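Annex B.
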Amino acid sequence: MFRCRRMTPRYFSLRKTALSSHRTPNHCCGIRRDAASSNATADSIYLAPIRSFSRYLPRSSARVVPDVIPFIIKKQPLKFARSASWFSPRRFAGSQKNGDGSSSSSSESSSNGNQDDNGDGSNKDDPEVVIEDKAGTSPDPTQGVLTQILVPDVFPEVPLIPVHRNPVFPRFVKMLEISDKSLMDLLRVKCRLTQPYAGAFLKKDDNDEAEVVTKLDDVYQVGAFVQITEMHDMGHKMRMVILGHRRIQIMGIVEDPAHVEKSVKEKKDAVSTEVKSPEEVQDPAQNIVEQDSESERIDLENMVKQGEKPILMVRVENVLHQPFKITPEVKALSAEMIKTIKEIISLNPLYKEFLAQLIEGGKKVVDNPVHLSDFGAALTSAESNFLQEVLEETNIPRRLRLTLELLKKELAVCLLQQQLGKEVEEKVNKHQKKFLLQEQLKIIKRELGLEKDDKDAVGEKFRERIKDLVVPKHAMEVIEEELGKLSFLDTHSSEFNVTRNYLDWLTSVPWGMYSEENMDIKRAREVLDEDHYGLQDIKDRILEFIAVSQLNGSVQGKILCFTGPPGVGKTSIAKSIARALNRQYFRFSVGGMTDVAEIKGHRRTYIGAMPGKIIQCLKKTKTENPLILIDEVDKMGRGIQGDPASALLELLDPEQNSGFLDHYLDVPVDLSKVLFICTANVTDTIPGPLKDRMEIIHVSGYVEDEKKSIAKTYLIPQARNKTGIKVEQVELQDDALETLIKSYCRESGVRNLQKHIEKIFRKAALKIVQDKDDLIKIGPDMLKDYVGNPVFNSDRMYDETPPGVVMGLAWTSMGGSTLYIETSLSESLGADKDGAGSMSVTGQLGDVMKESTQIAYTFAKGFLANLDADQDFFRKAKIHLHVPEGATPKDGPSAGCTIISALLSLAMNKPVRQNIAMTGEVSLTGKILPVGGIKEKIIAARRAKVNCIILPEGNKKDFADLPDFVKEGLEVHFVPHYNDVYKFAFES
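Lon protease homolog, mitochondrial: predicted structure tokens.
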């Protein structure tokens, strides 16, 4: 007699129907009732035709199946499933009550006695199958109590389940999670067909996370025949526990799941071929069987249709180990393995679960080398290829040796882990011990009065900081108030940190501390001349400041503003002034600044508040009379955080900065002794009130001779030091330096000249290292190899100016330049039939310059009429006036006399004097008004090799202030009216 493997809920329904009708169906055997109870007891035997159960037997079973299969219900009153949404064949254990109320054990064995894969005749450890529904609820054991599953010895076709990183060994479980729909559908079908078996094969690539393989090369050929012992189906994914039984090897691929279609066909035939009588047709139990069979057939057919991609099924055969004998080598290897396993478990508590399995297996695992080798390999965390090698090995002594090697490596890792753990633990204990002793020492010192707590220590630190300072009364009152407030606050409160930071800034201000100022004018002049060439106006103003301070006997602050083109030394001279005066130097730029808090600080109510730049300067310099350079004041912005230019009004006002109030400190600070120096390129963008508070000193650009002197005195020695070149290695000739200044570096400043000189010396250094040259002489012809082609050409557009063209002079923030005025007839003379004449202007002129052209046009017509009453040129001519370099915006009134001269030259068809340039604003009556930028314009005229210059009479004083080498060789005429300009331009 065979023990049945499954009973499904539909047969419980059939059983319930038969019992309720008090008769036995024709296709079922009778139910033997217990004499002591009317209930069907666990000793009842229920028989069913083999046709109804054939689908639950594996196709690979080679046993001779009898016509009927007995189901032994183990001493359990029959309970019937109320739902078929889940399927749970489960082995029932425990004691149950009999019908007479007595308790009996549930243990029972079959007369046949199923055998495991090792043939030891024991099957009490065989697993059970649990399939949970999608809601995740476990089935109730009372809803169907069935016998355990007998694992077949041969199962030729199994689904292929790829596993990652670690293979599955026999008698070991592994938890898997599957989300591939095709594989999930196949496993559901297999479990429904009572074939919860599969083949678990290790993937060769550990990084490949695919759950289905498309070719056998992706997995190793030897794996494990596994049984699905638990399954939790959540719809979109499936969690299962698999148990390895034996080794198997892949023999081939099953192209399509034909077993599903065949099972459907078998079940259909089993229902249709039953011999039905009229009594059987009316039997309700038979109707239930037919309905269930039909519904299951439809479900299976749907599964086949939905599987668009065939699941990879494989044909397998069992892998048997080679016969072996228990030799001394096998015994020694086994003993060494057991010893190593015990050492590993003693070192690593994570392996105690494996120890429990070892104890549960008892002598069976210890004495069985087959089991022991698998157990030892599964215990390690070796790489997958080494574990697979153990799994594939069929020679037991060699398998034991491989496993022992893995165990020894695992033991070495555990020893290293233990050593590292001890070192970390010792380090932690050392820190804990140190911390504990320090805390105890603090308590002891506090008890003895040798140390104060944190609040007292902080307060003492602040008092010690201001002990030697001359703190004003109003500031001292605030400090004392905050110190008293600090003593009542808890050290862990946020208010404590805010108060402590506020006191830290209050006591960091150098109250009453001043650096000793240098009053030696001679020493100051030496320092200024040592660092900078020229800049005589600035040097004289600083010497005057020292003289006044020396006479007064006290140091006062001052607000100066240096304006001029970039690169003329405005910022660097400020640092030299600080060194000459022996003052601390602090610089901050306000270019692009839009936040007032950068200057006056934040309110203390804000998180992360801090004082402004001025208070930070005092803290850093530790003196109340530093030199503060405020750079780029002409480039300040304005935003939603306020107007920084307005914030500077209080700071730069000598009458107000003696009580400067920072938003954070909220205590007046005396800045009257501070020397403020501001720098700007132009003064047009500086607000009027701010400009009124500063003494503006204009710094002009450098002429060629000045640039040459600066290059020889400062720039070339600096370039030598930076590149490490000695004087005798590189020689930059004078004519090369002149060419460099004229053709490459025409800017007013020397910053661009410095870059070119450094570039020349860098390339020379490379040549010295590569070519091993002793001396490199750089002449004008070699500059192209070092700095490229020349950037600038001659400023002169005309070697000889034709009628209607006059050279003017202009200046910008980058320096001075020549500016030609060109006039021409746009149409032939007399084309204007109205007789009024006209003039159009081009050259991207600004509004002021356009107005100047209209004034000049009006004055020229009157002036020409006075010269010759019969001259009607302007009444007939359509004139076009153009200013070259049309991409450059131009504006200003200083080209008035130049425009008049160009119009008169065109009208009289007579060129002006060659090598003459002029500048000056003209009024409607012809008066020549003074203009700015005289030095830059004179420099531009010298660069264009102009020897005659006409200037307004009001600029005579500006010309007188120029150095002699700038004025040398120039014919300059100062004119009050245009009549004088006409005389020098046309009649001379």
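Residues 454-508 form one domain. The chain has 33 helices and 29 strands. Further annotation is deferred to the next reporting cycle.
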